[in-house]
Fold this protein.
Amino acid sequence: MGATGSGKTTFINVASGSDLRVGMGLESCTNEVQTSQSFMLDGKRVVLVDTPGFDDTTKSDTDVLKMIAAYLQTMHKQEKLMSGVIYMHRISDIRVGGTSRRDFTMFQELCGKEAYKNVLMVTNMWGSVNEADAVAREQELREKDIFFKPILDNGALLLRHMNDQESAHKIIQKLTGTDPVVLRIQSELAAVNDITQTGAYAQLNREIMEQSEKNRQELEKLRGELEEAAQAQDEETRMELQEESEKMEAELLRVQNEAATLASEYQAELRRIEEQLHARAG
């Protein structure tokens, strides 16, 4: 897991010899959950699962939650337990912005504190930044409460990927000997089978409500400016503001509709993944 462009798919390809499509820059190519080809490591067969980030460029955050949750629930139903979870982070990032922090918060809600001992926080892209700067950033990630410290204090490890297979395999070996783990969202869905009753949904819904409130305030401001432009008979400005206002109203409606239909759409996504996995097995 990790933000869009953090190198998740590249890591999987390097480790497994797979050829999953890799995005360029900050554009996402992972628009659904996908798996690597299996490979042997320490006498065990390994399969890596690639997920889209919550800042995906082609899907909304509710779509991403729906896909990840449905896949994880299906795996749990089939008693296919995970050895652990790897979270990728670019050490080349000068600062951890709001988008990356939001992705990490959702990651924590998906896993739950009880699974942290099976979590690896992996930094990459060390070759694209001055080593002293990278080490300083790594220390900040390790020691600050707003970054990785809380999860590291509860058993997770902070490791480096040096963009080669040997490094990737050393990272994965930290998990091959561990007891399997059930993530928080898997336990929650096994208990109620309702995505709106999970911690991950509650966190996402809080963020959606906060953003909706900001959008509403901006829309009110736009309406005031639109009225002023009409009174001043400034037709060009009025048309620009009208277009911007309509876009914002449409965005507000889209977000509200997504939240309202998530539960039913999740069940449809669950059936789709179950059928897809059944077809592959058959």
Observations:
- The mean pLDDT is 88.
- Residues 50 and 151 are 21 Å apart (CA to CA).
- Residues 235-281 form the longest helix (47 residues).
- DSSP finds nine helices and seven strands in the chain.
